[in-house]
């Protein structure tokens, strides 16, 4: 039965048998330094198919096998792409494409949620914007730490949640020192502070009731 499995070599079975016969006849008992210096294989899959066994590198070869691969390289200077490597590369590309698609969908979902949350607070007369927190006790030159916060431009009072204008939504007396320098952003970024987002979602739900 002829296999439809992709092959790592374009040499036919008859051509490979002829090369093996020739290698067994010509290799002889002594190695040829010139052949050893020029020795190379196209890839591991190709070598394994020529040898009819797994390829473990040049140090795992007998002299007749080295000579066989030397003859095979001459007979086939340009083999087809290695099937398993090509399949693995295709699988990686599919995974990367799926990951990029999922990331884009998640970014779109977050953007839509943010627009809805902003609209819900604006309907209640509370304007917000995103500001970055440059406050850090471990600040270093050319490096800033901190999250992107929901910054209140108007005071907010919903249920037990009360915040003055001019503070982050996550602001409390205990964390005020860590939120001293909140700088406006202009690149359309979304807030990353989980506490701000949790408060904003909770506020939007209360306002919708």
Describe what you observe in this structure.
This protein is mainly alpha-helical and 209 residues long. It is 46% helix and 10% strand. Helix 1 (13-26) packs across helix 4. Residues 138-144 have low confidence and may be disordered.
Summary of the model, kept short:
Helix 1 packs across helix 4 (63-75).
Q: How would you sum up the global shape? A: rod-shaped
Give the topology string: H per helix, E per strand: HHHHHEEEEEH
Uncertain runs with pLDDT below 50, 5 residues or more? 138-144
Question: What integer is the average pLDDT?
Answer: 90
Radius of gyration: 33 Å
For the terminal residues, how far apart are their CA atoms? Answer: 71 Å
Features:
single chain, 209 residues, mainly alpha, three-stranded antiparallel β-sheet, two-stranded antiparallel ribbon, 6 helices, 5 strands, rod-shaped
Give the helices and strands, then pairings.
Layout: H1 13-26, H2 33-38, H3 44-51, H4 63-75, H5 83-123, E1 128-133, E2 148-152, E3 156-158, E4 161-163, E5 182-184, H6 194-208
Antiparallel strand pairs: 1-2, 1-5, 3-4
Helix pairs in contact: 1-4
């Amino acid at each position: 039965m002829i296999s439809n499995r992709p092959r790592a070599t374009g040499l036919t079975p008859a051509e490979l048998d002829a090369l093996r016969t020739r290698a067994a006849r010509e290799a002889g008992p002594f190695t040829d330094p010139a052949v050893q210096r020029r020795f190379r294989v196209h890839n591991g899959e190709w070598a394994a198919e020529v040898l009819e066994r797994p390829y473990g590198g040049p140090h795992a070869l007998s002299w007749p096998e080295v000579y066989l691969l030397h003859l095979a390289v001459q007979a086939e200077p340009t083999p087809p792409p290695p099937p398993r490597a090509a399949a693995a590369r295709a699988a990686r590309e599919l995974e990367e494409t799926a990951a990029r698609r999922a990331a884009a969908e998640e970014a779109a979902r977050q953007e839509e949620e943010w627009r809805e949350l902003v609209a819900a607070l604006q309907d209640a007369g509370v304007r917000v914007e995103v500001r970055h927190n440059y406050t850090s006790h471990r600040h270093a030159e050319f490096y800033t730490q901190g999250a992107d916060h929901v910054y209140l431009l108007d005071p907010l009072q919903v249920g037990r949640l009360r915040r003055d204008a001019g503070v982050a939504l996550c602001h409390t007396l205990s964390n005020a020192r860590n939120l001293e320098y909140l700088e406006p952003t202009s690149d359309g970024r979304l807030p990353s502070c989980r506490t701000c987002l949790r408060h904003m979602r909770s506020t939007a739900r209360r306002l919708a009731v």
